[in-house]
């Protein structure tokens, strides 16, 4: 059917002022299952699409052939060029668009429902193109503006209806506009990125974008002048002289207190105090393997300073779970808690040391490991360093399989981390009837506040988390007692308490749930007057922003864990699960802290699901919760096995799982776990096994 | 630049407490300069100078290292490949002399020359104490003896290296970096007049 002949690519390379811009339009292979083919076509195009240097025999062509052409930007210097001509990468901005044909890996019914609810962000988790990009399989490094329009394929021609033929093709965002700029500000803004659903002549809806680019304009006369100046300047320096620079204001940078996921920047200058040009670069310190510790980023990492000139280096400390938050909150020794390191800035004939340190690290449960957290008997900010070092050492010993000997695991532990218990407990008491819990975004400020409460152990301030934006102001005067759904709260409490027994049954040596000294929420039931009530937005419906923020904080906490709830070592097996028993076998084989946390979360989700009376709605909600939680409970192991993990080393990257199916498999795993054992009798909320 | 016009290339490190004058010894020896306002070295720097010993050209690559305690772990990484060390202390600061023993220990731990050692440490110590050999008081300020200190160490290294080459296969000679350490330790006499550095 001419399948080969109607696919291909065209490109235009143009120079606007002095800025080379490249536009490529591709029509890649069709059909859901042809992702690998699409990826290959993308690669071939990127490699083989070459733009002639100029008309044959022209001055530009000759100059380019000699390599004498002025500096040309290159977006991908490592790319191999297979012929003569400008590659698509030799450009300031590359825009790549067209019917890229990547599909959504979900059943039609799910996609229809999510389109109906405009849950595009959720749907994009199943977009093949995004998955390919994440796994560096195609279009890596390209950016795309947020998608706020419905999938643009496949429509019945002449209508606004998605494919009604017997093929029932899954609606997809096949038509995309991606871009890549050399400098951060090359693409200043995407003014518009939208589809045009009013067009009905095709089975696709057209997509358009308006990019605002910054271009440069070379003043040729000035350029020549500067060039001559530099040549003259360089010539005057004797090549035998060694460069000399100093670091200003001092070779030591001190940061204040560092907090989780709050980047802090400092600047330092490389001043050329010598008489020759000074090329410099940060180099790997003897005995280490990277330029900087994981929590530190230096930009630029190399440079060149003319005599008398100075260059600014920016240092950013940013501690997240992937940059060692756990090792700072739970250090193996008191000195390991220090944020301090020495960088080596190398010149010809000289190395300078730059010491970087921070006054203190604010310990947090975010980014930590579950085995550490279950041993935390009090809020982390109330613990001292020695206690946390002790926890780290005990867990490290347990990781090595050391038997609980005389000096063994003497740190008491709870079934689930206190913080998780507090979050879930609060939600169980106040948020069971909140529609769309976990599916709605929270407020950044409230999420931060919740995080702080978890670390310090303070109660969640009810006036912030139960009030809504529109009623916060009046909350103080409104003494009307909050009327919770007593029965439901009691159910939830009972269900969660019932968990204790279940968890005990699963983990042989399982300790009990943490007591909740600072969190009376769960135990309290009837009519507590708290000075605030569920607020209502303008249309009379409560917006529950505070509770959505706590839900978002819960997801954020789970996503931040240094090792996900489903351990690296269990990841591959989890993706392969096909029935409920198999999924629970994976859970049972997880390390205790991980298994308990997972069962606890599942129990709460079941309680939440039982709130939805309508069976069909409940299924839809189950599905949605599975999608959402699958992304935080399961994460692919990091590529190198050097991750700070205590469990078995991560699965080798030679995964047998097709990356395009990963989101669906993750969701399936959680869905299987959420499924009731005997389908019809779905009333016993906390029943886990 | 890039002269291959030397017979031997010896890497020598300058070590010792912060502030004893290592950087000025280096600048005096390689550039004949002295800087009264010299600041603490925070890093590692090298300079070269060639000298003649027994009709051979020896190119000395002298590495000046930060003396501050906090940089100790990293500076010791630069000892690798060195065939000699000048351990410097300040005759006006007794503590820097006391620390010489610590530096010696550091050298022994970090240098990769142990297996090439020609002279046992204790013997060398005793020897130098009894004979005052290889102990030189210098002043980088008035340039006295700086030249002599470097001449002494480079000559000693040359002797050991050429001796080794004779013992082994002479055909394998002329490989820079091959060599042995010599211990040059101070005498008990610590009461000089010169205000700057002492080199031991």
Summed up, the domain count of chain A is 4
Count of separate DSSP helical elements of chain A: 19
**The biggest beta sheet of chain B, please?**
6 strands, mixed
Overall residue-averaged pLDDT value of chain A? 79
Question: CATH architecture of the largest domain in chain A, please?
Answer: 4-Layer Sandwich
Q: Specify the overall morphology of chain A.
A: flat
GO molecular function, one term (chain A): phosphatidylinositol-4,5-bisphosphate 5-phosphatase activity
InterPro entries (chain A): Endo/exonu/phosph_ase_sf, Ig-like_fold, IP5, IPPc, OCRL-1_2_ASH, Rho_GTPase_activation_prot, RhoGAP_dom
Pfam families (chain A): Exo_endo_phos2, OCRL-like_ASH, RhoGAP
Biased composition (Low complexity) (chain A): 509-520, 641-662
Task: Explain briefly what this protein structure is.
The complex is a heterodimer of chains A (689) and B (200). Chain A has 689 residues and is α+β, with helices and mostly antiparallel strands.
List the helices and strands and how they pair.
The complex is a heterodimer of chains A (689) and B (200).
Chain A: E1 8-16, E2 19-27, H1 35-48, E3 50-51, H2 59-66, E4 86-87, E5 93-99, H3 108-116, H4 120-124, H5 128-134, E6 175-181, E7 187-195, E8 207-213, H6 220-236, E9 245-248, E10 252-258, E11 264-272, E12 278-283, E13 296-299, E14 302-305, E15 310-317, H7 325-329, E16 340-347, E17 350-361, H8 370-373, H9 385-399, H10 418-430, H11 444-456, H12 462-465, H13 486-506, H14 545-560, H15 568-575, H16 580-588, H17 592-610, H18 615-633, H19 662-674
Parallel strand pairs in A: 2-5, 10-17
Antiparallel strand pairs in A: 1-2, 3-4, 5-6, 7-8, 9-11, 11-15, 12-14, 12-16, 13-15, 16-17
Helix pairs in contact in A: 10-13, 10-14, 11-14, 13-17, 14-18, 16-19, 17-18, 18-19
Chain B: E1 8-15, H1 22-31, E2 43-53, E3 56-65, H2 72-75, E4 84-90, H3 94-98, H4 100-110, H5 121-131, E5 136-137, H6 146-167, E6 197-199
């Amino acid at each position: 059917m001419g399948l080969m002949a109607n696919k291909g690519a065209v490109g235009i390379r143009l120079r606007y002022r002095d800025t080379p811009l490249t536009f490529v339009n591709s029509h890649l292979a069709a059909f859901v299952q042809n992702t690998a083919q699409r990826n290959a076509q993308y690669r071939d195009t990127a490699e083989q699409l070459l733009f002639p240097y100029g008309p044959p025999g022209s001055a530009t062509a000759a100059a380019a052939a000699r390599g004498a052409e002025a500096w040309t930007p290159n977006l991908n210097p490592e790319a191999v060029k297979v012929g003569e001509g400008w590659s698509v990468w030799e450009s300031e901005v590359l825009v790549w668009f067209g019917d890229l044909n990547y599909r959504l890996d979900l059943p039609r019914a799910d996609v229809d429902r999510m389109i109906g609810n405009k849950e595009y962000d959720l749907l994009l988790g199943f977009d093949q193109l995004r998955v390919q990009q994440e796994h560096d399989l195609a279009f890596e490094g390209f950016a795309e503006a947020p998608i706020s329009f419905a999938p643009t394929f496949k429509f019945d021609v002449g209508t606004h209806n998605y494919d009604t033929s017997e093929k029932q093709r899954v609606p997809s965002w096949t038509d995309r506009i991606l871009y890549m700029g050399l400098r951060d500000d090359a693409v200043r803004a995407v003014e518009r990125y939208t589809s045009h659903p009013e067009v009905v002549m095709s089975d696709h809806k057209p997509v358009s974008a308006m990019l605002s680019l910054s271009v440069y304009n070379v003043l040729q006369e000035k350029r020549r002048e500067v060039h001559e100046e530099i040549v003259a300047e360089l010539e005057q320096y004797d090549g035998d002289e060694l460069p000399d620079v100093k670091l200003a204001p001092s070779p030591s940078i001190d940061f204040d207190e560092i907090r989780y996921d709050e980047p802090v920047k400092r600047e330092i200058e490389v001043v050329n105090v010598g008489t020759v040009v000074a090329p410099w670069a940060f180099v790997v310190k003897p005995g280490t393997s990277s330029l900087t510790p994981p929590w530190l980023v230096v930009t630029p990492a190399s440079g060149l300073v003319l005599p008398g000139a100075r260059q600014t280096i920016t240092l950013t400390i940013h501690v997240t779970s992937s940059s060692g938050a756990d090792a700072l909150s739970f250090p193996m020794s008191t000195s390991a808690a220090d944020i301090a390191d020495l960088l080596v800035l190398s010149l010809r004939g000289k190395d300078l040391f730059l010491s970087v340190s921070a006054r203190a690290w604010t310990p947090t449960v975010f980014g930590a490991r579950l085995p550490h957290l279950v041993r935390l008997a009090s809020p982390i900010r109330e613990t001292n360093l020695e206690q946390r070092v002790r926890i780290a050492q005990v867990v490290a010993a347990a990781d090595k399989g050391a038997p609980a000997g005389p000096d063994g695991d003497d740190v008491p532990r709870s079934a689930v981390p206190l913080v998780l218990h507090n979050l879930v407990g609060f939600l169980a008491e106040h948020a069971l009837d909140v529609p769309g819990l976990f599916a709605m975004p929270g407020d950044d400020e409230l999420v931060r506040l919740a995080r702080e409460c978890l670390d310090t152990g303070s109660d969640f301030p009810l006036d912030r988390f139960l009030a809504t934006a529109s009623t916060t102001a009046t909350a103080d005067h409104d003494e009307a007692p909050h009327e919770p759904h007593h029965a439901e709260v009691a159910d939830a409490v009972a269900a969660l308490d019932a968990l204790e027994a279940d968890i005990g049954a699963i983990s042989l040596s399982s300790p009990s749930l943490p007591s909740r000294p600072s969190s009376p929420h769960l135990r309290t039931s009837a009519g507590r007057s708290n000075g605030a009530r569920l607020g209502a937005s303008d249309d009379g419906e409560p917006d529950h922003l505070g509770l959505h923020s706590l839900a978002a904080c819960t997801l954020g906490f789970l996503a931040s864990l240094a090792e996900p709830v489903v351990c690296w070592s269990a990841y591959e097996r989890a993706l392969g699960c096909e029935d409920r028993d198999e999924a629970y076998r994976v859970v049972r084989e997880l390390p205790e802290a991980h298994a308990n946390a997972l069962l606890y979360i599942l129990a709460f989700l079941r309680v939440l699901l039982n709130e939805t009376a309508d069976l069909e709605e409940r299924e839809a909600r189950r599905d949605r919760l599975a999608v959402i939680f699958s992304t935080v409970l399961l994460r692919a192991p990091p590529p190198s096995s050097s991750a700070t993990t205590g469990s078995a080393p991560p699965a080798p990257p030679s995964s047998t799982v097709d990356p395009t199916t990963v989101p669906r498999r993750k969701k399936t795993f959680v869905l299987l776990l959420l499924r009731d054992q005997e389908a019809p009798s779905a009333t016993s909320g906390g029943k886990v096994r | 630049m890039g002269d291959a016009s030397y017979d031997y290339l010896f890497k020598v490190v300058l070590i010792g407490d912060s502030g004893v004058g290592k950087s000025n010894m280096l600048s005096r020896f390689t550039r004949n300069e002295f800087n009264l306002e010299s600041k603490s070295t925070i890093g590692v720097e090298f300079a070269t100078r060639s000298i003649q010993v027994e009709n051979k050209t020896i190119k000395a690559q002298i590495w000046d290292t930060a003396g501050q305690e906090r940089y100790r772990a990293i500076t010791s990484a630069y000892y690798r490949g060195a065939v000699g060390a000048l351990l410097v202390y300040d005759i006006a600061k007794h503590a820097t002399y006391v620390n010489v023993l610590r530096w010696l220990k550091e050298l022994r731990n970090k240098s990769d020359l142990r297996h090439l050692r020609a002279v046992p440490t204790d013997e060398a110590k005793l020897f130098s104490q009894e004979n005052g050999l290889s102990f030189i008081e210098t002043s980088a300020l008035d340039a006295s003896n700086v030249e002599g200190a470097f001449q002494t160490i480079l000559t000693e290294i040359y002797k050991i290296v050429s001796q080794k080459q004779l013992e082994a296969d002479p055909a394998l000679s002329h490989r820079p970096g091959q060599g042995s350490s010599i211990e040059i330790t101070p005498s008990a006499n610590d009461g000089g007049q010169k205000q700057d550095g002492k080199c031991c």
